[in-house]
Design brief:
- The protein is of the alpha/beta class.
- Helices cover 16% and strands 49% of the residues.
- The longest helix has 26 residues, at 2-27.
């Protein structure tokens, strides 16, 4: 009977500890992440990445490039503003398990270039875009040859061709 009481007590403590950790993750989600504080930025390693400030991209290529499996990017409600109408905000190619959340990706003015894309996914397996807001690029989200892509709680506005899907 004593062993049973000890086991129950340990299980209760473990459950309480997990509840505290989940609460801390909700309150401080970028505490154990790699900071993204400039662009261009290339992700070559799996992990959790957090945008720590509003970003402005002056280039014509990719502001953020993801080339690793198991990557999660949390924008923490910061924005990425593209100044060149040929720019791509976030480009993800040939990866498994990608998550992007809580972002605003926008062109400075409405772009009409065929290469302006807020988020481009190519050959991605299992992607989640959650709480995403895109504005003023030619395409809000481009999805090419991808499997299992979930877009939830997101809003795309003022795009010439706001959604492109070729799966």
């Amino acid at each position: 009977e004593l062993e049973s009481d000890v086991a129950n007590c340990c299980r209760d403590i473990k459950d309480q500890l997990f509840a505290v950790l989940e609460s801390l993750d909700a309150q401080f989600p970028c505490g154990t992440s790699t900071a993204i504080d400039h662009v261009p930025f290339t992700i070559l390693q799996p992990g959790y990445y957090c945008v720590t400030q509003d970003l402005t991209y002056f280039g014509s290529g990719n502001a953020i490039t993801v080339q690793a499996d198991n990557v999660k990017i949390n924008f923490e409600n910061h924005s990425l503003t593209l100044l060149d109408q040929n720019a791509v905000g976030i480009f993800v190619e040939d990866v498994n398990e990608f998550t992007l959340e809580n972002d605003i990706i926008q062109g400075k003015t409405p772009f009409s270039s065929a290469t302006s894309i807020a988020i481009a996914l190519e050959n991605v397996n299992k992607a989640t875009l959650s709480n995403i807001y895109t504005l003023n690029t030619t395409k809000g989200v481009s999805i090419v040859n991808c499997v299992d892509v979930l877009v939830e709680n997101s809003f795309m506005k003022s795009h010439k061709g706001f959604f492109d899907e070729d799966t």
